[in-house]
Specification:
Layout lengths: L1 E6 L5 E6 L2 E6 L4 E6 L2 H8 L4 E2 H12 L10 H16 L2 E6 L1
Antiparallel strand pairs: 1-5, 1-6, 2-3, 3-4
Helix pairs in contact: 1-2
């Protein structure tokens, strides 16, 4: 079973860059989250689509001119899963199990 992820609607979030950090205000909860890279980049490439970890990773590679081979072997995938789970706990991303 593969997990798919979907970010909140961008209109529900207000983002403000602050040096190396980004503030994300979540309108529904009234909570402001303070995040660092790669969180803003992950949310940016996700858009409003339901995506797998590998699809999100591929978009990060394309959008930020990263080494695509880095996704092979699992270490980057593991880090991306950890970040997506952190975003899920914050309520900024939803995880959906796909058959």
């Amino acid at each position: 079973m593969t997990a798919l992820y979907k970010a909140l609607i961008p209109a529900e979030l207000i983002q403000h860059d602050l040096d190396s950090m980004t503030l994300i205000f979540q309108k529904a909860s009234g909570i402001t989250h303070i995040v660092a890279d790669p969180i803003p980049a992950i949310l940016e490439v996700m858009g409003q689509e339901l995506l797998s970890v590998l699809e999100i990773g591929a978009r990060l590679v394309d959008s930020f001119d990263l080494d695509g081979d880095a996704l092979e072997g699992g270490s980057v995938e593991d880090v991306l899963i950890a970040r997506l789970e952190e975003l899920r706990v914050l309520g900024l991303v939803e995880r959906v199990s796909a058959a």
